[in-house]
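Thread: Modeling a multi-component assembly for a lab meeting

Hi all, long-time lurker, first post. My supervisor asked me to bring a structural picture of a complex we are working on to next week's group meeting, and I have zero experience with this. I have the sequence lines for every component (308 residues in total). Could someone generate the structure of the whole assembly? Inputs are pasted exactly as I received them:
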Amino acid sequence: MQRIVDQGTLSQLRRGVIEYCVLALLRDGERYGFELVRTLSEVPGMVTSEGTLYPLLSRLRRAGVVETSWRESSSGPPRRYYRLTSSGRSVLEAFSGEWASFRNAVDHFLEQEKAV
Amino acid sequence: MNAATLHPLARDYLKRLKKAAAVLPRARRGELLAEIESHLSEALPAGASETEALNVLERLGEPAEIVAEAGAGQAPTRAGPTEWFAIALLLVGGFLFLVGWVVGVVLLWSSTLWTLRDKLIGTLVLPGGLATSAFIFTFVGAGTGSGSGISGEHADYLTLVLFGLFGVFLVVLPILTAIYLSRQAKRAKVAT
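Re: Modeling a multi-component assembly
Sure thing. I ran the full set together rather than chain by chain. Output:
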């Protein structure tokens, strides 16, 4: 089953939504890069390589949806913290709504097919 | 976050990443390297075993893959007036007391459109542009002109042809470079 699903399509889908997963992770407060990357990659099926998340974080910063600051840590190397900007917060809210109806629409067809 | 405190395999990985990231604009390259270095020192204590190190690096992914991702989201850059100005100055700016050419070089190197190779070609072929060609041409031309009385008629003819070819070569080179640079500038869409 897994084999006949086009990997290109899957990675496109992933690429499309992962930015919003990052924003969602930041909803309750700031996190540093490594923490974000590890949290994302620990959920199976979301991240294929951790390193590619850093360019994504950089894109989010340039898009103005997150802001960053490097800070010293007591236990090791300096960490770069990411937090949502107000525009990031509204992007996340808008996406959450869109996503719910998109997911329901896809489910609608998938479930229907199963029922037939 | 001293590189010396990193695991040897992590240091090696960073070196490869740095090489692969050479195609990225400078600011983005610096940002990416800092993040990955921070990731490595976080994930990989200097005393970690080789197996642990290999696992961390595998999860991180291939440098080329990461760099491709860093280039992918970049807004397409198109050749603007600065790029055309740079090409023009490199070609004929030398006639403006050479200062014009120097300004051209600065513009060339500050553009993110051209690769390192393009920039080296733009700078070295020829330094000074057409002004250098003109200078060499008149200088050598004057030299052969004064020497014509001494050498035989046949040899004189040959040197004249040779210097003629040399002169054409000198004029054509900077023009070819200008054509090359404008083609590269038009082609460059994404800095990957």
